[in-house]
Amino acid sequence: SEDVPLHCIHYNYRQRKERERERSSLNPTMASLKVPTNVPLPEEDAEQLHKAFAGWGTNEKLIISILAHRTSAQRSLIRSAYAAAYNEDLLKALDKELSSDFERVVMLWTLDPAERDAFLAKESTKMFTKNNWVLVEIACTRCPLDLFKVKQAYQARYKKSLEEDVAQHTSGDLRKLLLPLVSTFRYEGDEVNMRLARSEAKLLHEKVSEKAFSDDDFIRILTTRSKAQLGATLNHYNNEYGNAINKHLKEDSDDEYLKLLRAAITCLTYPEKHFEKVLRLAINKMGTDEWALTRVVTTRTEVDMERIKEEYQRRNSIPLHHAVAKDTSGDYEDMLVSLLGHGDV
Amino acid sequence: MAHTLDLESIVDAFSGKNVGMGVDEKALISTLGNSHKDHRKLFRKASKGFFEEDEERAFEKCHDQFVKHLKLEFSRFNNAVVMWSMHPWERDARVVKKALKKGDECYSLIVEVACTRSSDDLLGARKAYHSLFDQSMEEDIASNIHGSRRKLLVGLVSAYRYEGNKVKDDLAKSDAKILAEAVASPGEKAIENDEVVRILSTRSKLHIQQLYKHFNQINGSDLLGGVSDSSILNDALLCLLKPSVYFSKILNASLNKDADKGTKKWLTRVFVTRADHSDEMKEIAEEYNQRYGETLAQNIQEKIRGNYRDFLLTLLSKSN
């Protein structure tokens, strides 16, 4: 590396630190979560929740009014307080008292982000709940350090690594894509090498022209480059070759590998577009995919739900929470709408 | 016994402040060589001009100019002091970077770092790589290595293995069968096999040990007896299963009087990177003794001279 004067090393380092601090995963400005200005103590919340379970029936409205308006840090404290006061895991109590889609949304929401992702990832590798989209979302939209926390949570809970499960339950091209996606610890810096962006865009285009969609180098670029570098490469691809790369990957609309490849690319560059699409497909006229709806809302509420809402409004001309309200009902609907920021506080 | 230096004197020694006056090298060897890794951390934190704190990734890295300066200052120690003072994560990141630059013959070093470190230390080395080289270890290796070895090497460095004590015996058995079929392939074909890469780069070390037992039963031959034509596969297996054997073999090679310059440097690397793990170092010394008749200490005493020898012996004695 070049000889850089000491004071310059310090300056670049500081600048980089600033940008990294701004780019945190739990981003309050893009979250749709509404938290009251005066939040009760965790012990008070725990007591109220306990009351909600007491006697015949359950006070679902009370549960929503508390849990749907607390951050992950606050929910974690409530869980501790609940366990200390009542000698039971809050999640166990919720499991006993609630059912069906409402239970699933409350349970997933209450888990902390790493545990939630580990749970969803495990589910997605099991035979009857197989879902490679979930793995792509987790691997590509979480920041590298958060992805690592997911891996740690996965090992702690399931006594094996996420990588070995993904590897074991996939094969061929799917494994070739998914395994490095979940394994690589991407560089998080903003630095971009424009020369490299040009040469790798060219390489991608060559492979795409040859329809070599699972070529080693094609996958290498997508699964190891930093998000910033990849963004620059794909922008260059678009400028140079007249179309975004995904348009060139629509060879066979039923091919699962190509679908996942396109999803991975969208998740790595414009996650809100991916999530808008998942939501749009989940809330279509022919019934609702509750699992997809629950997944997107619980995992994005504290991250970038406001951006997703904007994207949804833009594409569908109605606000997301209206579409959700039309398509769901009861406590499940109330919980979702609250998380989207439109419940009663 | 030489007296120990205080923190300030060590910092001065490293800064070259006492040029011309020399530094009490015996004291330096004794102090640094015997130092616990937490003491060295204090030293790195105290030397703000030379080490920079990477708060986010929780380690202190060495400025490049300082590395150059230290190499000159401590040339008689053959790099040992420089490497010893660095954070282990930085050490490993630099080893991998250098191996990548040198090319083909040095890829076994990448295997060594990826397979003999704990999951968290490998992760740490990858974090240090981000900090030092502004890119990930995975992308650097993937873009600079081509051909059959890329898959396995990228897989090995990307690993974050489970380190608990749960193993599924039936899975170990079926993986053993898969490996048994694959290793018989000629040349490097074995490492082009996706299943081989899967097993070696995602399974826990405990699982692989269980697999080893089954392999020897199924195949009748020793998985560690050079079953494959691929040297990188054999190295990976040895590093994952019996690191002390691997290390004692390369120490023997580097202490050989006909060893070339590059091979001689292995001595420094093994000592410096393993000395903080006194259990491992002890195992390596015992293994070496069993294999080659002499003790490691004896061999070093005979073949190495000067301050470098004293430093190595100090590091070795830490593990006793």
From TrEMBL, chain A:
SMART domains: ANX. PROSITE patterns: ANNEXIN_1, ANNEXIN_2. Keywords: Acetylation, Annexin, Calcium, Calcium/phospholipid-binding, Metal-binding, Repeat. The keyword Lipid metabolism does not apply. It comes from the Eukaryota. Belongs to the annexin (TC 1.A.31.1) family. Belongs to the annexin family. This is Annexin.
TrEMBL record, chain B:
InterPro entries: Annexin, Annexin_repeat, Annexin_sf. SMART domains: ANX. Keywords: Annexin, Repeat. It holds the Pfam family Annexin. It comes from the Eukaryota. Belongs to the annexin (TC 1.A.31.1) family. This is Annexin. It comes from Brassica rapa subsp. trilocularis.
